[in-house]
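Q: what does this look like with zinc ion bound?
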Amino acid sequence: MLGGVVLALTLLLALPARAALPRAASVPGGVALVSLGPVAGTGGPPRAWLGEQPVLVTRRAGEWIAVVGLALDTPPGRHELLVQPVPAAAAAEPAVADAAAASGRAAFSVAAKEYPAQRITLKDSSKVDLSAADLARVEHEMAEIRRLKRHWRTADDIDLDFVVPADGRMTGRFGVRRFFNGEARSPHAGFDIAAARGSPVRANAHGIVLASGDYFFNGRTVFVDHGNGLLSMYCHLDRIDVQAGDVLAKGQRLGLVGASGRATGPHLHWGVVLNGALVDPQLFLSARGDRR
Ligand SMILES: [Zn+2]
């Protein structure tokens, strides 16, 4: 018992004095850091929503900061969060209905960003021009993925300082506007790391496996829930080594690099979701040498 208390205290003292935050980039596909005011007393964080989606709130020094994911289709201009300053109940899940009861607002602005274009030629045109059966499968999978991206689990041990989940060469930047065999497709909403088939894929931060599946475009994929609307997805895996509910430590292996789904060769496609929006994973990599 005492050992446990001492261990807990040691872990507490080992925590950094200031929580690492992602780099702010208030652009479509980026992350806005919005001050929600000073930390007062011992109360929990204020709760905030972007539209109906709850938003991650953390503290930096004596200030509450909303860490807001901005989808690639976010229109530039002024946006605002709904804010509920005092939590109604510390342990309650932030229900969508609460957004209507929020009493405050916090405004922030989003600047325009032009991402580069990339043209890709795929020999297997069946992954570009879909059959009716494949189209039905893709629509079903997209609905499932949309639902997973909106997942929320309240957590108070958020790690916003990621490690790169695979060793290899960065081959695909976030946000690139893609054309497959000349046809415009959705922009590249993740970060690609080329590595040999069978290379380990590791959790970029601790979390709980939310789901896994084998999808038409994304191939074998693992979703990890880091808490408070922050998730990672690891796509095109050759093998999945975890299942829903598994608790993962930062750096723990969850599968192997592959080329399943729509992939031109073995690589990891790593997506990061924040309040339902796919954002640039590089914003969460610190400058200590593992940024590529
Ligand atoms: Zn990719």
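The pocket of zinc ion is lined by residues 172, 188, 190, 192, 269 (CB under 6 Å). The chain has a mean pLDDT of 87.
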